[in-house]
What we know:
The protein is α/β, with parallel strands linked by helices. 36% of the residues lie in helices and 18% in strands. The strands form 2 sheets. Strands 4-3-5-2-1-6-10-11-9 form a 9-stranded mixed sheet, sandwiched between helices. It has a two-stranded antiparallel sheet with strand order 7-8. It starts with 14 loop residues before the first strand and ends in a 5-residue tail after the last strand.
Amino acid sequence: MTDPxxxxxxPTPRRVLLKLSGEALMGDRxxxxxxxxxxxxxxxxxxxxxxxxxxxxxxxxxxxxxxxAAAAAGMDRATADYMGMLATAMNGLALQDALEQQGCPTRVxxxxxxxxxxxxxxxxxxxxxxxxxxxxxxxxxxGNPYFTTDTAATLRAVELGAxxxxxxxxxxxxxxxxxxxxxxxxxxxxxGYTELLASRLEALDATAVSLAMDNEMPIVVFDMTQPGxxxxxxxxxxxxxxxxxxxxx
Length: 249
């Protein structure tokens, strides 16, 4: 059941999981990384961290390599997905560099072994980094093919005890239809997990939503292209669409 009203501001979370798509890092480019965009994202994360919010980040790799598209062109899907995991590592290193230029200590942790450039993902170590005030950038998804970075973000949020998943996108929430194809589409301020799954809305993949539902992990989908929105989302301000338990009638 959706709530047609305006979502009330949420209290500032103690620990959040920010999900950034690879496309978020390329700005107006057709592919690759836009350094100015990365610096802007890093500045917002660093400011939120100075507010004493613990921030973990899961980053995608679609700006460099998209496994599904490559598989459709004839490449083995598992191989393509592993290549996509390597792309997320490149994005993670770029974000780490930008964060540390902001004076924000950062650790990149990978689900697949890349010991020369990152730490292995170990849950207790990641929690300790967060407790010490470091931003933790999580790359290589779950370490397994056939799972999206949305699913990886949900899994890591549950493991690390985050209070909310913040999914930064190029649209300002979840709509009942594609707003680019249907100008009259309605944006939800709140929507339940079950309704999102039943409506087959493509805000997140079904595995991620099901995992979030099983663990009562709220998800906020918001527009990261508006200046300052990442910081506002991390601080707990009401933005976009909040996905959670069904709203009672």
